[in-house]
Amino acid sequence: MLVAVIRATMRMAVCLAVVTTSGLSVTTTAPAAAIPGPIGPDGEALRVPVSGSVPGWVAHAVRLGSTNPSDLRRIRIALAPRDPGTAERLAHQVSTPGTRDYRRFVTSDQWRELFGPDAQTIKRVRGWLQDSGLNVENAAPGTSTVAATGTVADLEHLFGVRLDRYRLGTTTLVAADTDPEVPGGLRSAITAVLDLDDTQRLAEPAVATPATAERWPSPSTPHASKATSGATQCATSWSAANNSAVPQRYRSSRQSNRLCGYTPSQVRGIYDLAPSATGAGQRVGLIGAHTDQQAPADADRWATASGLQALAPGQYQTASTSNHRPSDCAVAAWALTQVQAIEAIRTIAPAADITWYGSSDCTDVDEALERAVTADQASVLSLGWTAPESWYSATLRNHIDQLLIRAAAQGQTVVAATGNNGDNSHITGHPEPTYPASSPWITGVGATTVAADPTGRPMFTAGWESAATTEHRGRWSRTDSNTSFVGGASGGESQVYKQPDYQADLIAAGHRSTPDIAMLGDPTTGMRLGAGMPSGYRSFAAGGTALAATLFAGAVADALQLCSETDQTSVPTRAGLLNPTLYQLYRDATVHSGPIFDVQPTAAGIWTPEVSTTSVGKPSQQHHGSYLIEVDGRPQSLRSAPGWDPVTGLGTLTAGSLPTLVSEPHLNLLHWPHRVGPFLLPDGQNWLTWLYRVLAIAATSPDVRPTGHNHGARPLAARPPQHATFHE
Q1: Per-residue pLDDT tens for 452-489?
Q2: Domains of the chain from N-terminus onward
């Protein structure tokens, strides 16, 4: 039984800790232990390939030649968890409603004792790297990687590969076209050789701005808030400005100028958040590359202009590495992602604590994720970066998946942007989703286009798939195929992950499909940000699925806060992997009256003076003129639809639905809050009254046991292992 295995493993871990404590104090230059393994005919230890290490993008790139052999390169060796099968089953059981182990999480220390690589394995790997002439770094406690730096020549000799330069679009990258080799005696302990290639440089921040913020009029421009017959400025709410000098393809309530960006009060109005929803007591971790030291000051200036309080002392923290190499990546885009994420959390969960986990650069963003999971301080983690799924190697995906499995077991909810490139066909040549959102161990967040009135009340919500049309002889018509797609949430069916249990019978596909949920993300109806620009501080609209993911992360923090304040003894302080719960809530609810609102296409248009397009390996290109964007216009293969769809997933959150995110789905004995009106419940109940009743049932049901983050080392309930269908 699973619990017996775990208890036995924990006892062994404690004994090993006592036995090896003195051994851990030896210097890093001590001789490495012998590496047992198969021996070749020449007496040398055989080297075994780490299969699946070549990234998919190499097959589509142009080889430019060899890499300078004297160049320095930092690599990391990812170590396998002990008993990975049990680790996965544990994460599956604590995440699945109806199991006795549901939300009975372990701590980071418990995970390390149960499944972390043992000290002897780490010592052997470090010794092998040191003996090979590499400069080995001291690893932080609890991590599953060993980092080292060496010359290209040293790395090529050590791993038996040739590191070449490639061109993908306009981007120059380094990679090997064969799998690296490691000593046979270490192969079972090594799952990946990370950063031997530049794949993670292709992971772009999923932030989107509808125009160059330097040129687009500020919301403070005279008359910007008034509906005028020939207005060309941005609208402060839907149709507050509508350019009547261009053809009116849609009726007045369905055509608007591009918005200036919704204010915090309007965004909260869209989701009908009560003042009590603040995220207090929760910590949200934001994962990205680099650290913009100006971001908190920009966020404070934005907060003051938005009528919010500045960050409280200690509310915002950074947990970043110091060896930044800013020339390697698009620093400005990552900086915008950081400030947008901070301001989005301040909007949805203004009292939540925030930690920015920034990697040294964009070549090792997964390292920032590992730092956040190992620290285990944040109850919710938001990933705002993405790349086509096929570009990742199988070993890199597996390494990140292991981090996500650990996060699920620890009760950390991890959400990820699905990307802003629609079906990615203009990037890869065929439709495919993005990673890491396509991992079954993460909640992929798509994006919506929201038309809201001045108070934030939605007039309609559609999927974000924007098709550009241009005026010709008094009519709007689609532009050419290269510019008709001007942004949209990514999604679709994975080609590498089987369909997880929680999606079975809801999606007609044999593989994992994304997204799972959606939030505001269309930059033409996005959120108003404040950030530093070359000309100084500016206020402008921004969006993207990075915004949507962060807004959803804030909503989870609100849900945990509201439930925790209701009854400390019978509600979770963490929620873990949300997907099984989300899909069960969807099954339990009736159409349009559940906690998730089904998003469907709406005939509407947004006028804008410019649009941007992207293609593989190239920066966004701006096109200026007069455009009408067809909302959810299916410019590629994706569009919202009844039920689950590849743009918005199950849909978007309804008014008053936050508590259901962390409640027990099988306790749905009351009707869910209806969509119409602020937190309107059957019989006119206040939504908090409804929440109390649900929690009261949870507390008294004999089949429901107290849940919560297991800092008290509560043992897992005995139950036969339940096998997941998550992996390839």
Answers
A1: 999 999 999 999 999 889 888 788 888 665 558 889 99
A2: 252-590+602-658 (3.40.50.200), 660-700 (no CATH)
